[in-house]
Protein backbone atom coordinates (compact mmCIF):
# COMPACT_ATOMS: atom_id res chain seq x y z
CA UNK A 1 0.00 0.00 0.00
CA UNK A 2 0.84 3.71 -0.09
CA UNK A 3 2.30 3.92 3.43
CA UNK A 4 4.60 0.98 2.78
CA UNK A 5 5.83 2.48 -0.54
CA UNK A 6 6.56 5.81 1.16
CA UNK A 7 8.64 4.06 3.82
CA UNK A 8 11.05 2.43 1.34
CA UNK A 9 14.35 4.32 1.68
CA UNK A 10 15.62 5.98 -1.47
CA UNK A 11 18.89 4.67 -2.89
CA UNK A 12 21.83 6.71 -1.59
CA UNK A 13 22.53 9.35 -4.26
CA UNK A 14 25.79 11.22 -4.73
CA UNK A 15 25.25 14.41 -2.71
CA UNK A 16 24.75 17.31 -5.16
CA UNK A 17 27.63 19.76 -5.06
CA UNK A 18 26.67 23.39 -4.54
CA UNK A 19 28.95 26.35 -5.03
CA UNK A 20 29.08 27.80 -1.53
CA UNK A 21 32.49 29.32 -1.96
CA UNK A 22 32.40 33.16 -1.88
CA UNK A 23 35.55 33.25 -3.97
CA UNK A 24 33.58 31.77 -6.86
CA UNK A 25 31.36 34.87 -7.04
CA UNK A 26 31.49 36.76 -10.35
CA UNK A 27 34.37 39.20 -10.63
CA UNK A 28 36.18 38.03 -7.50
CA UNK A 29 38.94 36.19 -9.35
CA UNK A 30 39.46 39.05 -11.80
CA UNK A 31 39.93 41.50 -8.91
CA UNK A 32 42.45 39.20 -7.26
CA UNK A 33 44.38 38.89 -10.52
CA UNK A 34 44.42 42.66 -10.91
CA UNK A 35 45.78 43.09 -7.40
CA UNK A 36 48.39 40.35 -7.93
CA UNK A 37 49.59 42.03 -11.16
CA UNK A 38 49.78 45.40 -9.42
CA UNK A 39 51.78 43.84 -6.56
CA UNK A 40 54.16 42.29 -9.06
CA UNK A 41 54.64 45.69 -10.64
CA UNK A 42 55.10 47.31 -7.23
CA UNK A 43 52.03 49.53 -7.62
CA UNK A 44 50.47 50.36 -4.25
CA UNK A 45 46.68 50.26 -4.12
CA UNK A 46 45.20 53.77 -4.36
CA UNK A 47 41.96 52.58 -2.73
CA UNK A 48 41.04 52.71 0.95
CA UNK A 49 43.71 55.34 1.62
CA UNK A 50 43.20 56.20 5.27
CA UNK A 51 42.80 59.84 6.19
CA UNK A 52 43.91 60.43 9.75
CA UNK A 53 41.93 63.63 10.22
CA UNK A 54 39.01 65.54 8.70
CA UNK A 55 39.59 65.42 4.93
CA UNK A 56 39.33 69.04 3.86
CA UNK A 57 41.64 70.92 1.51
CA UNK A 58 44.32 69.61 3.82
CA UNK A 59 44.39 66.10 5.21
CA UNK A 60 46.83 63.57 6.66
CA UNK A 61 47.71 60.21 5.11
CA UNK A 62 50.44 57.91 6.49
CA UNK A 63 51.33 60.63 9.00
CA UNK A 64 52.04 63.21 6.28
CA UNK A 65 50.09 66.37 5.59
CA UNK A 66 48.73 66.39 2.04
CA UNK A 67 46.70 68.74 -0.13
CA UNK A 68 43.48 66.89 -0.80
CA UNK A 69 41.44 66.92 -4.01
CA UNK A 70 39.57 63.67 -3.35
CA UNK A 71 36.72 64.70 -1.04
CA UNK A 72 33.39 66.29 -1.99
CA UNK A 73 33.09 68.67 0.95
CA UNK A 74 32.54 71.41 -1.64
CA UNK A 75 31.97 74.35 0.67
CA UNK A 76 34.25 73.11 3.45
CA UNK A 77 31.34 72.86 5.89
CA UNK A 78 32.32 69.48 7.34
CA UNK A 79 33.71 70.28 10.78
CA UNK A 80 32.52 73.90 10.62
CA UNK A 81 32.15 74.95 14.30
CA UNK A 82 28.40 75.59 13.95
CA UNK A 83 27.81 72.26 12.18
CA UNK A 84 29.87 70.33 14.73
CA UNK A 85 28.13 72.10 17.63
CA UNK A 86 24.69 71.28 16.19
CA UNK A 87 25.60 67.61 15.83
CA UNK A 88 26.91 67.46 19.40
CA UNK A 89 23.85 69.23 20.82
CA UNK A 90 21.63 66.86 18.84
CA UNK A 91 23.25 63.89 20.56
CA UNK A 92 22.76 65.52 23.96
CA UNK A 93 19.09 66.22 23.21
CA UNK A 94 18.05 63.12 21.28
CA UNK A 95 20.85 60.53 21.43
CA UNK A 96 22.60 59.07 18.41
CA UNK A 97 19.61 57.26 16.89
CA UNK A 98 15.86 57.75 16.57
CA UNK A 99 15.55 54.03 17.28
CA UNK A 100 12.55 53.41 14.99
CA UNK A 101 11.06 54.02 11.57
CA UNK A 102 9.57 57.50 11.46
CA UNK A 103 6.08 56.08 10.97
CA UNK A 104 6.32 54.15 14.19
CA UNK A 105 8.25 56.05 16.89
CA UNK A 106 11.11 57.68 15.01
CA UNK A 107 9.63 61.08 14.13
CA UNK A 108 11.52 64.04 15.68
CA UNK A 109 11.05 67.80 15.18
CA UNK A 110 14.28 68.13 13.18
CA UNK A 111 13.00 65.78 10.44
CA UNK A 112 10.19 68.13 9.42
CA UNK A 113 12.42 71.17 9.94
CA UNK A 114 15.11 69.81 7.62
CA UNK A 115 12.59 68.69 5.00
CA UNK A 116 10.82 72.07 5.06
CA UNK A 117 14.11 73.90 4.55
CA UNK A 118 15.20 71.56 1.76
CA UNK A 119 11.89 72.08 -0.05
CA UNK A 120 12.15 75.86 0.34
CA UNK A 121 15.74 75.81 -0.82
CA UNK A 122 14.77 73.96 -3.99
CA UNK A 123 11.65 76.09 -4.46
CA UNK A 124 9.21 73.17 -4.39
CA UNK A 125 6.36 72.06 -2.12
CA UNK A 126 7.83 69.38 0.07
CA UNK A 127 10.73 66.97 0.67
CA UNK A 128 11.41 63.61 2.30
CA UNK A 129 14.76 62.39 3.63
CA UNK A 130 16.28 58.91 3.46
CA UNK A 131 19.30 57.42 5.26
CA UNK A 132 21.62 57.79 2.26
CA UNK A 133 21.67 59.32 -1.19
CA UNK A 134 22.05 55.86 -2.69
CA UNK A 135 19.06 54.59 -0.70
CA UNK A 136 17.08 57.61 -1.90
CA UNK A 137 17.45 56.75 -5.59
CA UNK A 138 16.80 53.06 -4.97
CA UNK A 139 13.75 53.66 -2.77
CA UNK A 140 12.16 56.43 -4.83
CA UNK A 141 12.62 54.99 -8.31
CA UNK A 142 11.93 51.49 -7.00
CA UNK A 143 8.59 52.70 -5.65
CA UNK A 144 7.19 55.08 -8.27
CA UNK A 145 8.05 52.98 -11.32
CA UNK A 146 6.65 49.56 -12.19
CA UNK A 147 6.65 46.79 -14.80
CA UNK A 148 4.49 48.76 -17.26
CA UNK A 149 6.85 51.72 -17.14
CA UNK A 150 10.07 52.88 -18.77
CA UNK A 151 13.12 54.58 -17.24
CA UNK A 152 15.30 56.53 -19.66
CA UNK A 153 18.61 57.63 -18.21
CA UNK A 154 21.87 59.22 -19.26
CA UNK A 155 24.59 56.65 -19.96
CA UNK A 156 26.73 58.15 -17.18
CA UNK A 157 23.99 58.08 -14.53
CA UNK A 158 24.87 57.02 -11.00
CA UNK A 159 24.67 53.30 -10.28
CA UNK A 160 21.93 53.77 -7.64
CA UNK A 161 19.51 54.91 -10.37
CA UNK A 162 20.06 51.64 -12.22
CA UNK A 163 19.59 49.63 -9.01
CA UNK A 164 16.32 51.49 -8.31
CA UNK A 165 15.09 50.80 -11.82
CA UNK A 166 15.91 47.10 -11.50
CA UNK A 167 14.01 46.98 -8.23
CA UNK A 168 10.97 48.63 -9.84
CA UNK A 169 10.72 46.06 -12.64
CA UNK A 170 10.45 48.90 -15.20
CA UNK A 171 12.14 48.65 -18.58
CA UNK A 172 15.35 50.61 -18.82
CA UNK A 173 17.13 52.29 -21.73
CA UNK A 174 20.09 54.62 -21.61
CA UNK A 175 20.90 57.40 -24.04
CA UNK A 176 24.47 58.48 -24.86
CA UNK A 177 25.83 61.06 -22.43
CA UNK A 178 23.95 64.37 -22.73
CA UNK A 179 22.65 63.35 -26.18
CA UNK A 180 19.15 64.83 -26.03
CA UNK A 181 18.49 64.15 -29.73
CA UNK A 182 18.68 60.44 -28.98
CA UNK A 183 16.54 60.91 -25.88
CA UNK A 184 13.88 62.55 -28.05
CA UNK A 185 14.10 59.79 -30.64
CA UNK A 186 13.72 57.15 -27.93
CA UNK A 187 10.68 58.92 -26.53
CA UNK A 188 9.14 59.29 -29.98
CA UNK A 189 9.59 55.57 -30.63
CA UNK A 190 8.76 54.19 -27.19
CA UNK A 191 6.49 56.57 -25.27
CA UNK A 192 3.18 55.02 -26.27
CA UNK A 193 4.22 51.51 -25.32
CA UNK A 194 4.50 52.46 -21.65
CA UNK A 195 2.17 53.73 -18.97
CA UNK A 196 4.68 56.07 -17.31
CA UNK A 197 8.10 57.24 -18.39
CA UNK A 198 10.79 58.67 -16.10
CA UNK A 199 13.81 60.51 -17.51
CA UNK A 200 16.75 60.59 -15.07
CA UNK A 201 19.78 62.86 -15.36
CA UNK A 202 22.39 64.40 -13.04
CA UNK A 203 22.70 68.17 -12.84
CA UNK A 204 26.49 68.00 -12.56
CA UNK A 205 27.99 64.70 -13.65
CA UNK A 206 30.12 63.14 -10.94
CA UNK A 207 32.86 61.75 -13.18
CA UNK A 208 33.14 64.40 -15.91
CA UNK A 209 32.00 67.61 -14.24
CA UNK A 210 29.70 68.69 -17.06
CA UNK A 211 26.11 69.91 -16.74
CA UNK A 212 22.78 69.34 -18.48
CA UNK A 213 20.62 71.49 -20.74
CA UNK A 214 17.75 71.73 -18.27
CA UNK A 215 15.58 74.02 -20.42
CA UNK A 216 15.58 71.49 -23.24
CA UNK A 217 15.02 68.55 -20.89
CA UNK A 218 11.96 70.28 -19.43
CA UNK A 219 10.60 70.98 -22.92
CA UNK A 220 11.15 67.34 -23.93
CA UNK A 221 9.53 65.87 -20.84
CA UNK A 222 6.51 68.14 -21.29
CA UNK A 223 6.13 67.26 -24.95
CA UNK A 224 6.19 63.52 -24.32
CA UNK A 225 4.31 63.46 -21.01
CA UNK A 226 7.20 62.03 -19.03
CA UNK A 227 8.49 62.70 -15.52
CA UNK A 228 11.87 64.35 -15.13
CA UNK A 229 14.15 63.46 -12.21
CA UNK A 230 17.33 65.45 -11.62
CA UNK A 231 20.01 64.07 -9.29
CA UNK A 232 21.54 67.18 -7.71
CA UNK A 233 24.04 65.26 -5.56
CA UNK A 234 26.91 67.37 -6.91
CA UNK A 235 24.96 70.45 -7.96
CA UNK A 236 23.78 71.57 -4.53
CA UNK A 237 25.91 74.45 -3.23
CA UNK A 238 27.93 74.28 -6.46
CA UNK A 239 25.75 75.45 -9.36
CA UNK A 240 23.84 78.72 -9.55
CA UNK A 241 24.72 82.12 -8.17
CA UNK A 242 23.63 81.22 -4.63
CA UNK A 243 24.33 77.49 -4.89
CA UNK A 244 20.70 76.47 -5.37
CA UNK A 245 21.63 74.15 -8.20
CA UNK A 246 20.93 73.71 -11.88
CA UNK A 247 17.47 75.36 -11.84
CA UNK A 248 19.03 78.56 -10.58
CA UNK A 249 21.96 78.25 -12.99
CA UNK A 250 19.55 77.74 -15.92
CA UNK A 251 16.86 80.23 -14.87
CA UNK A 252 14.21 77.50 -14.83
CA UNK A 253 11.25 77.31 -12.44
CA UNK A 254 12.23 74.35 -10.20
CA UNK A 255 8.60 73.15 -10.17
CA UNK A 256 9.07 72.12 -13.80
CA UNK A 257 11.19 69.21 -12.56
CA UNK A 258 9.12 66.39 -11.09
CA UNK A 259 11.71 64.90 -8.75
CA UNK A 260 14.71 66.68 -7.33
CA UNK A 261 17.03 64.21 -5.70
CA UNK A 262 19.92 65.28 -3.50
CA UNK A 263 22.34 63.99 -0.91
CA UNK A 264 23.30 65.31 2.50
CA UNK A 265 26.78 63.80 2.13
CA UNK A 266 28.46 66.37 -0.07
CA UNK A 267 27.91 70.11 0.41
CA UNK A 268 25.74 69.45 3.48
CA UNK A 269 28.54 67.69 5.38
CA UNK A 270 26.40 64.84 6.64
CA UNK A 271 24.93 61.53 5.55
CA UNK A 272 21.52 60.94 4.00
CA UNK A 273 19.54 61.87 0.91
CA UNK A 274 16.22 63.39 -0.08
CA UNK A 275 13.57 63.77 -2.73
CA UNK A 276 12.04 67.23 -3.12
CA UNK A 277 8.97 67.85 -5.27
CA UNK A 278 5.21 68.10 -5.12
CA UNK A 279 3.13 67.44 -2.02
CA UNK A 280 1.50 64.26 -3.39
CA UNK A 281 4.88 62.81 -4.49
CA UNK A 282 6.38 63.30 -1.03
CA UNK A 283 3.23 62.04 0.72
CA UNK A 284 3.26 58.90 -1.45
CA UNK A 285 6.92 58.16 -0.79
CA UNK A 286 6.52 58.68 2.97
CA UNK A 287 3.69 56.17 3.12
CA UNK A 288 4.79 53.68 0.46
CA UNK A 289 8.53 53.61 -0.25
CA UNK A 290 9.99 50.52 1.40
CA UNK A 291 13.36 52.23 2.00
CA UNK A 292 11.55 54.90 4.02
CA UNK A 293 8.73 52.99 5.72
CA UNK A 294 10.85 50.03 6.78
CA UNK A 295 14.06 51.92 7.57
CA UNK A 296 15.17 53.99 10.53
CA UNK A 297 14.68 57.78 10.45
CA UNK A 298 17.65 60.06 9.86
CA UNK A 299 19.80 60.10 13.03
CA UNK A 300 19.83 63.27 15.18
CA UNK A 301 23.47 64.37 14.65
CA UNK A 302 23.27 63.79 10.88
CA UNK A 303 19.95 65.60 10.45
CA UNK A 304 21.00 68.60 12.52
CA UNK A 305 24.45 68.77 10.91
CA UNK A 306 22.74 68.87 7.49
CA UNK A 307 20.18 71.46 8.61
CA UNK A 308 22.92 73.69 10.04
CA UNK A 309 25.06 73.31 6.92
CA UNK A 310 22.01 74.20 4.81
CA UNK A 311 21.45 77.37 6.87
CA UNK A 312 25.11 78.28 6.40
CA UNK A 313 24.76 77.73 2.66
CA UNK A 314 21.59 79.86 2.53
CA UNK A 315 23.16 82.71 4.51
CA UNK A 316 26.56 82.24 2.86
CA UNK A 317 28.02 85.04 4.98
CA UNK A 318 31.54 83.97 4.15
CA UNK A 319 31.06 83.92 0.38
CA UNK A 320 31.85 80.21 0.10
CA UNK A 321 29.79 79.60 -3.05
CA UNK A 322 31.58 82.34 -4.98
CA UNK A 323 34.97 81.14 -3.71
CA UNK A 324 34.23 77.56 -4.81
CA UNK A 325 33.16 78.78 -8.24
CA UNK A 326 36.23 80.99 -8.64
CA UNK A 327 38.56 78.21 -7.46
CA UNK A 328 36.98 75.75 -9.88
CA UNK A 329 37.38 78.06 -12.87
CA UNK A 330 40.95 78.81 -11.81
CA UNK A 331 41.77 75.09 -11.58
CA UNK A 332 40.29 74.48 -15.03
CA UNK A 333 42.14 77.43 -16.62
CA UNK A 334 45.45 76.37 -15.09
CA UNK A 335 44.98 72.72 -16.05
CA UNK A 336 44.23 73.64 -19.66
CA UNK A 337 47.16 76.04 -19.76
CA UNK A 338 49.39 73.20 -18.54
CA UNK A 339 48.24 71.06 -21.46
CA UNK A 340 46.22 68.63 -19.35
CA UNK A 341 43.20 66.94 -20.91
CA UNK A 342 40.23 68.02 -18.80
CA UNK A 343 37.67 66.21 -20.94
CA UNK A 344 34.14 67.61 -20.61
CA UNK A 345 34.82 69.61 -17.43
CA UNK A 346 33.18 73.03 -17.34
CA UNK A 347 34.82 74.37 -14.20
CA UNK A 348 32.22 73.42 -11.58
CA UNK A 349 34.01 71.73 -8.66
CA UNK A 350 34.61 68.40 -10.48
CA UNK A 351 37.52 68.35 -12.91
CA UNK A 352 38.92 65.10 -14.24
CA UNK A 353 42.32 64.81 -15.86
CA UNK A 354 41.84 62.22 -18.60
CA UNK A 355 44.77 59.81 -18.94
CA UNK A 356 43.27 57.04 -21.02
CA UNK A 357 44.87 54.10 -19.25
CA UNK A 358 44.00 52.64 -15.84
CA UNK A 359 47.60 51.74 -14.92
CA UNK A 360 48.73 55.25 -15.77
CA UNK A 361 45.94 56.79 -13.68
CA UNK A 362 46.88 54.68 -10.66
CA UNK A 363 50.61 55.32 -11.06
CA UNK A 364 50.09 59.06 -11.41
CA UNK A 365 47.88 59.14 -8.33
CA UNK A 366 50.55 57.29 -6.33
CA UNK A 367 53.31 59.62 -7.51
CA UNK A 368 51.24 62.67 -6.64
CA UNK A 369 50.68 61.29 -3.16
CA UNK A 370 54.44 60.95 -2.71
CA UNK A 371 54.60 64.64 -3.54
CA UNK A 372 51.89 65.62 -1.10
CA UNK A 373 48.83 65.73 -3.41
CA UNK A 374 45.86 63.40 -3.07
CA UNK A 375 43.62 62.86 -6.12
CA UNK A 376 41.68 59.67 -6.85
CA UNK A 377 42.19 57.55 -9.92
CA UNK A 378 38.93 56.52 -11.59
CA UNK A 379 39.56 53.39 -13.58
CA UNK A 380 37.72 50.75 -15.54
CA UNK A 381 34.95 49.59 -14.93
CA UNK A 382 33.80 52.86 -13.28
CA UNK A 383 34.68 54.56 -16.60
CA UNK A 384 35.68 53.05 -19.97
CA UNK A 385 39.36 52.05 -20.05
CA UNK A 386 40.19 54.68 -22.67
CA UNK A 387 38.94 57.40 -20.36
CA UNK A 388 40.65 56.36 -17.12
CA UNK A 389 41.38 59.54 -15.20
CA UNK A 390 42.36 61.36 -12.07
CA UNK A 391 39.31 63.05 -10.63
CA UNK A 392 39.78 66.24 -8.66
CA UNK A 393 37.19 67.81 -6.38
CA UNK A 394 37.82 71.52 -5.92
CA UNK A 395 36.45 73.16 -2.78
CA UNK A 396 35.92 76.66 -1.40
CA UNK A 397 38.73 75.92 1.04
CA UNK A 398 41.54 75.41 -1.46
CA UNK A 399 43.95 78.31 -1.83
CA UNK A 400 45.16 79.56 -5.21
CA UNK A 401 48.61 78.48 -4.15
CA UNK A 402 47.49 74.90 -3.43
CA UNK A 403 45.76 74.72 -6.81
CA UNK A 404 48.71 76.17 -8.76
CA UNK A 405 51.17 73.84 -7.05
CA UNK A 406 48.95 70.81 -7.65
CA UNK A 407 48.61 71.59 -11.36
CA UNK A 408 52.35 72.12 -11.72
CA UNK A 409 53.13 68.80 -10.01
CA UNK A 410 50.40 67.02 -11.98
CA UNK A 411 51.75 68.21 -15.32
CA UNK A 412 55.33 67.38 -14.31
CA UNK A 413 54.52 63.85 -13.13
CA UNK A 414 52.28 63.20 -16.13
CA UNK A 415 55.14 64.17 -18.47
CA UNK A 416 57.58 62.02 -16.50
CA UNK A 417 55.22 59.03 -16.82
CA UNK A 418 54.81 59.64 -20.55
CA UNK A 419 58.57 59.41 -21.01
CA UNK A 420 58.91 56.14 -19.09
CA UNK A 421 58.60 52.79 -20.87
CA UNK A 422 55.26 51.21 -20.10
CA UNK A 423 55.26 49.11 -16.96
CA UNK A 424 53.68 46.25 -18.81
CA UNK A 425 56.55 46.34 -21.34
CA UNK A 426 58.99 46.17 -18.47
CA UNK A 427 57.11 43.22 -16.98
CA UNK A 428 57.45 41.43 -20.28
CA UNK A 429 61.21 42.09 -20.59
N1 LIG B 1 23.95 60.29 -6.84
C1 LIG B 1 25.14 60.69 -7.29
C2 LIG B 1 25.23 61.40 -8.59
C3 LIG B 1 26.29 60.43 -6.55
O1 LIG B 1 27.48 60.82 -7.00
C4 LIG B 1 26.17 59.72 -5.32
C5 LIG B 1 27.37 59.33 -4.48
N2 LIG B 1 28.50 59.93 -4.60
C6 LIG B 1 24.92 59.33 -4.90
C7 LIG B 1 23.83 59.62 -5.68
C8 LIG B 1 24.75 58.59 -3.62
O2 LIG B 1 24.84 59.46 -2.53
P1 LIG B 1 25.42 59.05 -1.12
O3 LIG B 1 26.90 58.88 -1.25
O4 LIG B 1 25.06 60.21 -0.26
O5 LIG B 1 24.75 57.78 -0.71
Overall number of structural domains: 2
The oligomeric state of the chains shown is single chain
How would you describe the shape?
globular
Please provide the count of β strands.
13
Largest sheet: 7 strands, mixed
Q: What string gives the helices and strands in order?
A: HHEEHHHEHEHEHEHEHEEHHHHEHEEEHH
Tell me what the structure shows.
The chain is of the alpha/beta class. It contains 17 helices and 13 strands. Helix 8 runs parallel beside helix 9, helix 14 (320-337) packs parallel to helix 16 and helix 15 packs across helix 16. The termini are far apart. The model has no long low-confidence stretch (mean pLDDT 95). The protein binds 4'-deoxy-4'-aminopyridoxal-5'-phosphate. 4'-deoxy-4'-aminopyridoxal-5'-phosphate (PMP) binds at residues 132-134, 137, 158, 160, 202, 206, 231, 233, 263, 265, 273.
At a glance:
With 429 residues, the protein is an alpha/beta fold.
Amino acid sequence: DKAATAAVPLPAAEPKRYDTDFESLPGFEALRMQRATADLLGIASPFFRTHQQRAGALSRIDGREIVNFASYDYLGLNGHPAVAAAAKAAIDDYGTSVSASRLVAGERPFHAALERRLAEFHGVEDAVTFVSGHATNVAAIGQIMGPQDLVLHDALIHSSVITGTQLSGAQRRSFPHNDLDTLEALLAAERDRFKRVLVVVESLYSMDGDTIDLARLVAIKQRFGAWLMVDEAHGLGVLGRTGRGIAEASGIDPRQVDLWMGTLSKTLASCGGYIAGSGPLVEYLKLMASGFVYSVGLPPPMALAALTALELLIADDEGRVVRLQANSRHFLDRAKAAGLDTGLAEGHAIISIILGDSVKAVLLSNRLLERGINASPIVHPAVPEKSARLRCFITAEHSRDQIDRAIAILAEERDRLDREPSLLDRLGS
